[in-house]
Amino acid sequence: MAVFVTAGVKGGSGRSTIAEHLTVWLARQGKDVLLVDADDQATVSDFTAWREHTLDGNVGYTLVQLLGANLRKQVETMKPKYDHVIIDTGGRDTTSQRAALFVADIALVPVQPRSHDVWTLTKLTKVLGEIQATRSNQLTVHSFLNRADITSADNREAAEALASMANLGFLPHAIKNRKAFPSTGAKGLTVFEAEQPDQKAITELNDLFDSVYNARINSTTEA
Ligand SMILES: Nc1ncnc2c1ncn2[C@@H]1O[C@H](COP(=O)(O)OP(=O)(O)O)[C@@H](O)[C@H]1O
Ligand SMILES: [Mg+2]
């Protein structure tokens, strides 16, 4: 069982997209997943509403909206009923995001390989440091490039910057900028469910999620 949170202090990096895809990726493996919308912009709630419409109500997971400091206790209460919990947060340092980082086992931090996005990581490492200091156990952090350039060389500088920040747990599994994300997302679907699937997008996500999931399994069996 794991509680995942998508985090970061920059809008548009792909937190909601990653939360939606991880939720559906786990649900498609038969897991009972709770998706928590902890962003007042309610993106994953809107996504789920479109999904209900497209799939005649069979979204495949449970959605709740939770905001503020209470989120922590509410997630603690709800998590025993599910195989996994995914919390999507907004792109700012808020009480909700801090509560989510406090209750989570694993933080996923998508980063666009652009200077304006990379600059925000100093702020994020500070937030993560403050959270780590108040926890009794360690929050596992995995950062990775999202909406990366198709040509790998163009992402190198950002990848190096991310890899140099010790508490951001950089994973070298980039998700590239692919049209399949907005085109499926508009209907409340993931790239796994497209009529004409983009195999490259699917492979990139499988590699990333396998790596995150296997790291989790290894750490919990060792513990
Ligand atoms: N890998 C990707 N390739 C192309 N578009 C993407 C990718 N990831 C996210 N997007 C698009 O970028 C926009 C912002 O993503 P979103 O997940 O809402 O970001 P955040 O939640 O961090 O603000 C959305 O329109 C989404 O469809
Ligand atoms: Mg979002």
TrEMBL record:
It holds the Pfam family CbiA. Residues 5-190 form the CobQ/CobB/MinD/ParA nucleotide binding domain. Gene3D superfamilies: P-loop containing nucleotide triphosphate hydrolases. SUPFAM superfamilies: P-loop containing nucleoside triphosphate hydrolases (SSF52540). It comes from the Bacteria. CDD domains: ParAB_family. InterPro entries: CobQ/CobB/MinD/ParA_Nub-bd_dom (IPR002586), DNA_Partitioning_ATPase (IPR050678), P-loop_NTPase (IPR027417). This is AAA family ATPase. It comes from Spirosoma liriopis.
